[in-house]
Write a structure and sequence with these properties.
Length: about 290
């Protein structure tokens, strides 16, 4: 006899390895439920809801907000450092400040185009090494103090840290929802501006948001950010990992933050369903369908 679980709150329930063939989960709350390795052949998930539980959503959002605020503060420090360089009476410092701005702009564009790893390795790392060499030579030869290159290196390192921290926070929030993504994205920039960051702080915050969205859309070069989103789905979302979902019915279901890795979905019905932020059968992270 088929098991009946319709119209129930089953949040965080474990059905791991169970035989649930032809079971009914119509209009049930399946957020955080573990169906790993379960037999769900012919199961009915009509108008059910999957994803991350409200409590875990709040926890993830809080952490993402704190990390975003940290990135905003780091962005403010970066902006203040560059501003001090540009306002200096020392020509070398002012020149270093202009060069820093140019490199940061190229870094943002490169990051958006190819991803953070390549932007750091191919642009920031060579710039830091070159600046260090120039600064040491200038100091030892007496041609300068080397402070311009020191502040340039400091600004670039702060920028890299800010983008790593900021994009991680926004990618995590983007896994939850677009609204929460915007809240986290804006909060970091606004906080950075409130603690002394200029217009550059908001520019970097917006850039972080755009890069995070690009990562979640599946663009090549952003594997680390997608892995973070995948981890949140696997750890806190609904799991159908390795499950048999042959001829399962997901008509009108709201499928959010759900792991279908290695699941058998042959013959399943998805009419009228809405799928967002889920892991597919080949372990790829998809944002919407």
């Amino acid at each position: 006899m088929a098991k009946e679980y319709s119209n129930k709150n089953l949040q965080k329930t474990s059905f791991k390895n169970e035989d649930l063939s032809n079971a009914s989960f119509v209009e049930s709350d399946l957020r955080g439920v573990d169906f790993t390795d379960a037999n769900l052949t012919g199961a009915n998930f009509t108008h059910s809801k999957t994803g991350i539980t409200p409590l875990n959503t709040i926890i993830i959002l809080f952490i993402a907000l704190m990390v975003s605020l940290l990135s905003g503060y780091i962005a403010a420090l970066t902006g203040q450092t560059v501003q001090n360089m540009l306002a200096s009476q020392d020509l070398y410092l002012r020149t270093a400040g202009i060069i820093t701005i140019v490199i940061i702009l190229f870094f943002i564009l490169y990051y958006y185009w190819k991803g953070g790893g390549k932007a750091i390795i191919n642009l920031i790392l060579p710039a830091v090494i070159l600046a260090a060499v120039i600064g040491i030579v200038a100091f030892l030869s007496g041609l300068g103090t080397g402070m311009g290159m020191f502040y340039l290196i400091l600004s670039l390192l702060l920028t890299v840290i800010m983008f790593i921290v900021g994009t991680i926070a926004r990618a995590a929030a983007g896994t939850l929802s677009n609204i929460l993504f915007m809240i986290v994205a804006l909060s970091g920039g606004m906080f950075g501006k409130s603690v002394g960051g200029g217009i550059g702080t908001m520019v970097m915050a917006i850039a972080c948001a755009l890069i995070s969205k690009r990562a979640l859309s599946g663009t090549k070069g952003f594997d680390t950010l997608r892995k973070i989103s995948s981890f949140l789905v696997i750890r806190f979302g609904t799991s159908f990992r390795n499950a048999k979902l042959i001829n399962a019915n997901f008509t009108g279901a709201k499928v959010h933050n759900t792991d279908f890795s290695n699941a058998d979905l042959s013959g399943s019905n998805w009419e009228g369903s809405k799928k967002t932020n889920y892991l597919t059968t080949d372990d790829k992270f998809a944002t919407k369908k």
